[in-house]
Every structure is written in C-alpha cells, then in structure tokens.
Amino acid sequence: xxxxxxxxxxxxxxxxxxCWLLFYPLTLWRTLRHPQAMMRYADVELxxxxxxxxxxxxxxxxxxxxxxxxxxGLELGLVSRAVPWAPLLASDxxxxxxxxxxxxxxxxxxxxxxxxxxxxxxxRETLRPPFFSQCYVTAPFAFAISLGGQLLLAGHNAFTTxxxxxxxxxxxxxxxxxxxxxxxDLGLSAVRSLLHVVVTILQAxxxxxxxxxIIAYASGAVPALVP
Length: 227
What we know:
Shape: globular
C-alpha cells in the first residue's frame, strides 16, 4: 500500500513538472505581451476554488520563483562564479533564498502602496490579490536584471553591450507596466502614477540594501564599527 502511494506521488510529481515545462513559457509570453491582462488574471483567479485557480498558467509566486531559479542557472552556466560578497551566500541554496526574498520586496511594496492609496485595510487577505498580480510582472524584470547584471560583470565587450540592453529594456518595461497598473487601479494621472512607481522602486532598493548590509554583518563580511 505504501509502495502504491509512493508511485502515485511520483506520478503526480512528474505530471506537475511536465505542466511547468508547458505553462512556464506560455505564462512568460503572456506576461511580456500583456502585463496588465495577466495582472487582472491573477486577481480573478484568486476568486475561484483552490483546485481551479491558475488552470492555464503558473501561479504568480511559483512563476517568480522558477524565474529566479532559471536566472541563477544561466548565471552558473554563462558567467564564471565570482566570490560572494557575504560568506553566508556562498552556497547556491542560500543565494537563491536571498534573491527570492529580495525580489519579493518589490511586489510587496507595490501592493502595499496600492492598498494605502485605495484606503483599504492592510490585512493578509487584502494584500494577497495585489501581491499575486505584482509577482507576474516582477518575474521577467528580475530575470532580465539578474542576467543583464551578470553579463555586465563578465568583462567582455560583447557581453557588456548585451547586458546593458537587458538592464535598460527591463527597467523601461517594468516602469511602463507599473505606471499603467496604478493608472488603471487608482485612476491617477500618468505623472502621479510614474511618481508612485519610481518612489516605490527606490524604497525597495533601500530595503534590499539594508537586508544586504545585515547579511554582510551577520556573516562577518563587514567589520564591526565597535571593536
């Protein structure tokens, strides 16, 4: 009986992995082409019963996590591994976890900004729909930023040009997508929406810098100010 349950679990795992291979590129393509539509799709799907949610796409947090995993794999395959800035991040698992937490700050702050401007109460339930929506557009942005940054650090002229193009294109795409999202959901002007997006991105960068500093101190990479 236990053996049959094990076979059933393996069967479900293989089927799930196969679905990922199919629906990941479809989800990525739909997000790149129609980011606002995918963000609305994330909201609508949360209203369905749990087994029926995201039946024709990957769920937003899973989509973001797989994207970060792919970016990390490409980094290892295309660019020589540099010495980590913090010993705690020397292992791939710790580095992946840090990147997942760091890039989740963006959708989190964007979702909080939306709720505050709507005057909605901030709870786990009210935060979930905008956070899920944000995970869709954060995933391709995180991938392009990660890959572009590694290409810039590679030291080759050809890689530098491609890396710079990736970074610039991803920033422009992300800012445009977020600006349209604020305009549609809050009814703000393009200028005010753009201001919200830029301020939130700067806040996210500050939070990432603080988190990086804490990790660096915790792992001994930065000497303490007081002996």
